[in-house]
Amino acid sequence: MPLLEGLVERSAKESIQLTNRVTIRVQVASFRRLRGRTVACAILDECAFWYSDEASSNPDTEILKALRPSMLTIPDALLIAISSPYAKRGILWDAFEAYYGKDESRRLVWKADTETMNPTVDREEIERAYQDDPAAARAEYGAEFREDLETYVGREALARVTVAGRSVLPWVAGFQHYAFVDVAGGSGQDSMALCVAVRRQGTTAVARLAEWRPPFSPEQAVQQAAEILAEYRLKQITGDPYAKEWPVERFAAHGIAYRPADQPRSDYYDAFLPMINSQSVELLDHPRSLRQLAALERRTSLSGRSIVGHPPRGHDDLANVIAGACVGLKIVRQSAASVVAVTRSWTRRVEEDESFIHPHERRGL
Known about the structure:
The chain is of the alpha/beta class.
């Protein structure tokens, strides 16, 4: 900009120093790193996608609380939020709901679609987006908050099933254990995670959580996972069908049978939610896993099917293995109970009517 060009004293990768002692800086949206400065203007970029849950380690409300004192000494300081809308929660939705279309002198909410803001955009590209995913296109290009999103589980429900101070449950003879793993390559954004669940005193409980955050060695992670399984006397583990045969071969090298999950993670989440709401599960006091569970979203697909998953730029590796282990253990127990029930029914029928058995089989029985 010609107006500012003469004021530039020094330009760095993420900041521009002006001759009037003002610095234009790209800053990480962290309430811990924003304090201690005098701010003339703060632009909150894509704040609809910031973590809005209080269970998060860096919620959007805390970022605002850190910014406002820094702007207090400048009378005309500006706080500007620029974002595509997303779910009906968070600081952007709160501002929209409170001030949009209302005659309030200090706050202005401007809402406009992409074509209004930039008439040069490709209209055909936008039309294709509406055809592919109308709900997402209405938010991305039409400036409409999404109607197809809702929170998977509330913080209060999670708090009721979290055992304060519990970080691990050791192996105990006589209790049934089950393990679930979410394998990752080690160099991307995803972690590799492992959960061991146990059935104890009539309740399904998370006994152990482990996470290998990138970068990590997949070989070493599998070895360490096998050591954890050995602690719980487990020779089998269930996991997502990642990398086809790779996890099968790697776990087999440590004497562990790897069984690919027979349903997608969203189905595990659907089956896990009733366990939370009925308080038939106990979770570890593990802040990172609890934040992931609290951040999960339920959205409606184009086919009308409900899908649960992590928010944009979020992660659910720990949440995935918790749901997989707890639901998997429940399925195994129900299957075993069905086999017992069928066997007892068959035996009772034999006792009541010997003609039910073929003559050639009676001697063997």
